[in-house]
Amino acid sequence: MDLPETTTLLLRRESGVLHLTLNRPDARNALNATMVAELNAVFDAIAADATIRVVVLRGADGHFCAGADLKEMMAGGLKAPTAGEADPVERWSRSFGAMLRKAGSLPAVLIAVCEGAVLGGGFGFACVSDIALAHREAKFGMPETTRGLPPAQIAPFVVERIGLTQARRLCLTGAQFRGSEALALGLVHACFDDEAGLQAQLADTLQQVLRCAPQANAVTKDIILKVARMDMDAVLDDAAAKFAVCVRGAEAPEGIAAFMQKRQPRWAS
């Protein structure tokens, strides 16, 4: 499936891996309305394309994402809508939450490369990723409350990622911290010190993901994400039905045969 044309994103496909780069370097890759709309469209396309097995999300020129583009938001005007009129600020905010949810629920594995500024919306991307790698000196934080704003669409994903207690501390203080502390919090999974270290970790991570069957990974991710969002019996019933479909699908016979024959399954070779 073709990916949409974009002006704020760089897209590069490579053997089942889509490298998606936020590309507003002059603004430290801050999210404006155009970027949010383009990300929503790209995530819709990825979700419909089974050939994309991994998405590597990174920012251009050494910064991941500095959050929302507040200059653009303020320039757009803050006049309250008239009766019966949709609130454009509310609509923009909600579109950002929709984008984060799409990113987190992609059938493909989402790897976030966190370096430089990982603030606000960038912090949100780290929280919805399946795997997050961080530069040891990357700067994480949610400064929204220091700007007189709530991290409205980000906070729920922060709670899911690191728990209520730490989410309350970070959201209500606007505290900023480095990648090494993000690792200790469980926000990210590994740290790197330089580009060579990142590329080594990324190559190893991609190798591990790509040896897993793509449909099995997509189904597993769907089951995991339903925990705490559905009644546990409903989660287990749904998981059992998905397991039965996978047993009778194309991947399980190949994966089991490869294991018995001591070879790589075809999706990993």
Automatic annotation (TrEMBL):
UniProt protein name: Isohexenylglutaconyl-CoA hydratase
Family to which this protein belongs: Belongs to the enoyl-CoA hydratase/isomerase family.
Pfam families attached to this UniProt entry: ECH_1
Native organism: Sinimarinibacterium flocculans
GO MF annotation list: catalytic activity
PANTHER family, per the entry: ENOYL-COA HYDRATASE (PTHR42964), POLYKETIDE BIOSYNTHESIS ENOYL-COA HYDRATASE PKSH-RELATED (PTHR42964:SF1)
GO terms, biological process: isoprenoid catabolic process
Cited InterPro entries: ClpP/crotonase-like_dom_sf, Enoyl-CoA_hydra/iso, Enoyl-CoA_hydra_C, Enoyl-CoA_Hydratase/Isomerase
